[in-house]
Amino acid sequence: MSTDHRFDVWAPHARKVTVRIEGADHPMEGLADRPGWWTLPEDAAAPQGTVRYGYILTKTFDEGTPEEREQVSDVLPDPRSRRQPQGVHELSCTFDPDACEWHDAEFRPRPLQDSVLYELHPGTFTPEGTLDAAIEKLDHLVDLGVTAVELLPANGFNGEHNWGYDGVAWYTVAEPYGGPEAYQRFVDRATAAASP
């Protein structure tokens, strides 16, 4: 059985890498053609669908006692994770970006010189501080003459509040804002609202 998610991680100083998926450990293989990269073999038995996972790195040092030379990390989040539901320091979670049903086939952007941009901070734009709550205010922006929205950085960060300038999980959408599904809904509705 193979997984529908590809588990790869760059760990150039690791001697061994294991991916823990839903509590089960799976050894990874170093890629000869991509030094420093580790992957879960395609034929590895791994759960299908949405799973929580993290990486365990084993490093070997030249100095110290035998016990000190080999160090095993805690379970670490995927630095390229698409979802961090419990925060940026916890287990990662697979996410299927293709599960979203888009309604933008007819969308045609306006010429930039005809655009009125609004820079939106998802955490402070509404009292709820979520992208779903921001969707409910898109008509208000259209009434103001806004034709395009630029989101302030919405990637994962440590804590509940952030201006977006010190995010650490660059491929995720912050869970306090609603996570990646809310981001997809916002983009889908914003393109519909911006259509001429």
UniProtKB/TrEMBL annotation:
Check the UniProt entry and state the signal peptide residues, or none. Answer: none
Q: Which GO biological process entries does UniProt record here?
A: carbohydrate metabolic process
* CDD domains, sorted: E_set_MTHase_like_N
> Which GO molecular function, any one, fits this protein according to its record?
hydrolase activity, hydrolyzing O-glycosyl compounds
Residues forming coiled coils:
none
Could you tell me which residues belong to the region Disordered?
63-88
Gene3D superfamilies for the chain: Glycosidases (3.20.20.80), Immunoglobulins (2.60.40.10)
Give the similarity note.
Belongs to the glycosyl hydrolase 13 family.
Organism in which the protein naturally occurs? Micrococcus luteus (Micrococcus lysodeikticus)
Q: Where is the composition biased (Basic and acidic residues)?
A: 63-81
User: Which residues does the UniProt record annotate as the domain Glycosyl hydrolase family 13 catalytic?
Assistant: 59-191
Name-wise, this protein is Maltooligosyl trehalose trehalohydrolase
Top-level taxon in the UniProt lineage = Bacteria
- Recite the UniProt keywords alphabetically: Hydrolase
What Pfam families does the record point to?
A: Alpha-amylase
